[in-house]
Write a structure and sequence with these properties.
heterodimer, A: alpha+beta, five-stranded antiparallel β-sheet, four-stranded antiparallel β-sheet, 14 strands, B: alpha+beta, five-stranded mixed β-sheet, about 35% helix, globular
């Protein structure tokens, strides 16, 4: 199908962009990569009055390091981050997870921030941001506020972004340690059924992140006390999160996937840290 | 700031296959429709219109993207490349197209323009791909005729031929 009519604005500055968002609120939608938004427009799932195309605002396409964090601007595509020369060294978790985000063709246009904005509970980028305890930078006419990933993502496709706010960037902390990521999807590039990521830092508890089991990514710290202890912790987590039934998998299958992938991912992260 | 109101037709200039062209479009017009109906470049096919099938894949500034998930106005000022650019003026197929012919990589041919454009981008970045990498890129396309094996063989053959030409 084709989208319903809307006004199109392509501001040249962040100030112009947030002015339009401030004026129109919920009736405006930010257009960056559009790899979810355009499909939703074509299917008429969303019918905004104004689209605000932010892709040509200078500076929003930057990837830069600030205070031990990698800041990724709102117009940075997933393939651009994947091709960033320092990625495997600074953000090895993203290097592992990004190839599973959509397809080569959608990553060429889809943005890192757009994926965070959409807040799909099975999505790889929100999972990575939550696990690394990253931040979301929101701009509006009222000013700038910075939220932690856990404050930002509030539920299924629901975030703390106010209607007049633009996600200007997300920040991924650089961690020293081993990381691992795995997911199970029906086909490569499909939405994941369950995704699991882990970070193992020297002399710390292991961080385990799980997507596809609840309405948002779940992050827990578990003690690295041998294979049996890790298995027990993941078993408890599977029952705590419960999982859910949908067309792709039953709650029981999701729990089972977590039980099977979880220990493998944790062991990989520990091995990678050593 | 560029602004086009609903229902208003804006004149959009872009480069299509190396030629500077322009045409009029409302904000809601998809790039796929702009190419086909306004500029008359019907080589780009439209399948699902929600980003799943990959038929409508074109290059924007060299990167393979879904033209059905792109507004025409977003391509303003950009260089768009479509399947029409692949064969030369006399109709001689390029290496990738020849490899598709040699390997029976198409039957009905509806999905083929998009697949050719994806691998035009991919092989330019990655001239020596593994079979796994080719399959991964191909996962962004649906083909209901071939079973994909012929397409994978064709891309690997084209990569080999293009490499032997450049070395």
């Amino acid at each position: 199908m084709k989208p319903r009519p809307f006004d199109y604005a392509r501001p040249d500055t962040i100030d112009e962009a947030v002015a339009i968002l401030g004026e129109h609120g919920d009736d405006a939608r930010v257009l960056a990569g559009g790899q979810t938004l355009l499909a939703m427009l074509n299917l008429r799932v969303v019918e905004p009055a104004v689209l605000v195309d932010i892709t040509r605002i200078p500076g929003l396409d930057a990837i830069r390091e600030v205070d031990g964090k990698v800041e990724v601007g709102a117009a940075v595509t997933q393939n651009r981050l994947l091709a960033w020369p320092a990625l495997t060294q600074k953000l090895p978790l993203l290097a592992a997870a990004l190839p599973f985000v959509g397809h080569f063709q959608t990553r060429n246009k889809g943005t890192v921030c757009g994926s965070v904005a959409h807040a799909d509970p099975t999505s790889e980028i929100p999972l990575s941001l939550a696990l690394l305890e990253g931040e979301v930078v929101l701009r509006s006419r009222r000013g700038t506020r910075v939220l932690s990933a856990s404050e930002f993502q509030q539920g299924m496709l629901a975030t703390a972004r106010a209607a007049d706010e633009l996600i200007a960037a997300v920040r991924f902390p650089v961690v020293n340690g081993g990381v691992a990521f795995r997911e199970v999807a029906r086909r490569h590039g499909d939405f994941a059924v369950v995704g699991v990521a882990a970070v193992a830092e020297p002399a710390k508890t292991i961080r385990l992140g799980v997507a596809g089991m609840a309405d948002r990514p779940a992050v827990r710290r578990i003690r690295a006390d041998g294979a049996a202890g890790i298995k027990d912790a993941i078993e408890r987590l599977a029952w705590e999160l419960e999982g859910y039934d949908d067309i792709h998998a039953s709650a029981r299958m999701r729990r089972d996937l977590l039980r099977r992938i979880g220990p493998v991912v944790v062991e990989e992260a520990i091995r990678c840290a050593a | 700031m560029r602004r086009v109101n609903k229902g208003e037709r804006a004149r959009l200039r872009l480069t299509l296959n190396g030629r500077a062209l322009s045409g009029e479009a409302e904000p809601r017009m998809l790039l796929s429709d702009f190419l086909r109906h306004v500029l008359g470049a019907t080589g780009t096919h439209v399948g699902c219109e929600h980003g799943v099938c990959g038929c409508c894949t074109v290059l924007i500034d060299g990167a393979a993207v879904r033209s059905c998930l792109t507004l025409a106005v977003q391509a303003e000022g950009r260089a768009v490349t479509t399947v029409e650019s692949l064969a030369d003026g006399s109709g001689k197929l390029n290496a990738l197209q020849r490899a598709f012919q040699n390997n029976h990589a198409l039957q009905c041919g509806f999905c083929t323009p998009g697949i050719l454009m994806s691998f035009t981008d991919f092989l330019a970045r990655n001239p020596d791909p593994t079979e796994t990498e080719v399959v991964e890129v191909l996962s962004g396309h649906l083909c209901r005729c071939t079973g994909y094996a012929g397409i994978v063989a064709a891309v690997l053959e084209a990569a080999k031929e293009m490499k032997s030409k450049t070395t």
